[in-house]
């Protein structure tokens, strides 16, 4: 009988957790434990909370300043701009949505992806659209003159 270059894997080289999780010695432990997903990474939660908090903070500081500017214009605001001006505090529901998705998502291995999706959408889509809505009346006044 020939011996391989690596030699056989001895039972003493395997840890007890690996041995306990193995039911078929011809499969690797990783393929056997595919049903047991690893715990979700907290990094996704932290990044998502940061992105949604930045979105909410920017809107909370910028929108009230635009309200005073628009009152000086004495012009009719587009509905999109008035929605942002009247509902900018609702952006604080974005971090709440991240936490709710994190703890309420039924599949633990998808929690990080869902939280990161909410954070990325809020920062890359919601924030620019709201800022565009705030600048829209200024663009309209500039185009009219």
Explained architecture:
By secondary structure, the chain is mostly helical. It is 67% helix and 0% strand. The chain has six helices and no strands. The protein has helices at residues 16-21, 29-32, 42-73, 79-87, 93-104, 111-144. The longest helix is centred in the last third of the chain and has 34 residues, at 111-144. It is elongated, with a radius of gyration of 27 Å.
Task: Summarize this structure as a short list of keywords or feature phrases.
145 residues, mainly alpha, 6 helices
Q: Mean of the pLDDT scores?
A: 82
Sequence of secondary-structure elements? HHHHHH
DSSP helix fraction: 55-70%
Q: How many helices? A: 6
Write down the overall geometry: elongated
**Class by SSE composition:** mainly alpha
Number of strands: 0
Question: Would you identify the regions where 5 or more consecutive residues have pLDDT less than 50?
Answer: none
Distance between the termini: 93 Å
Strand content: under 5%
Q: Specify Rg, calculated over alpha carbons.
A: 27 Å
Largest sheet: none
Number of domains: 2
Short note summarizing the structure:
The chain is mainly alpha-helical and 145 residues long. 67% of the residues lie in helices and 0% in strands.
Q: Any chance you could write out the topology, listing elements then pairs?
A:
Elements: H1 16-21, H2 29-32, H3 42-73, H4 79-87, H5 93-104, H6 111-144
Helix pairs in contact: 3-5, 3-6, 4-6, 5-6
């Amino acid at each position: 009988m020939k011996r391989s270059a690596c030699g056989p894997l001895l039972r003493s080289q395997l840890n007890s957790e690996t041995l306990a999780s193995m039911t078929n010695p011809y499969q690797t432990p990783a393929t056997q434990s595919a049903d047991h997903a690893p715990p979700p990474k907290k990094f996704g939660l932290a990044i998502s909370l940061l992105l949604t908090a930045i979105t909410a903070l920017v809107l909370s500081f910028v929108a009230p300043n635009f309200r005073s500017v628009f009152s000086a214009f004495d012009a009719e605001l587009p509905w999109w701009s008035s929605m942002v001006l009247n509902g900018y505090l609702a952006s604080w529901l974005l971090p709440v949505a991240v936490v709710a998705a994190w703890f309420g998502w039924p599949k633990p291995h998808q929690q990080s992806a869902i939280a990161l999706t909410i954070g990325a959408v809020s920062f890359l889509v919601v924030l620019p659209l709201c800022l565009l809505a705030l600048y829209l009346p200024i663009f309209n006044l500039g185009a009219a003159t």
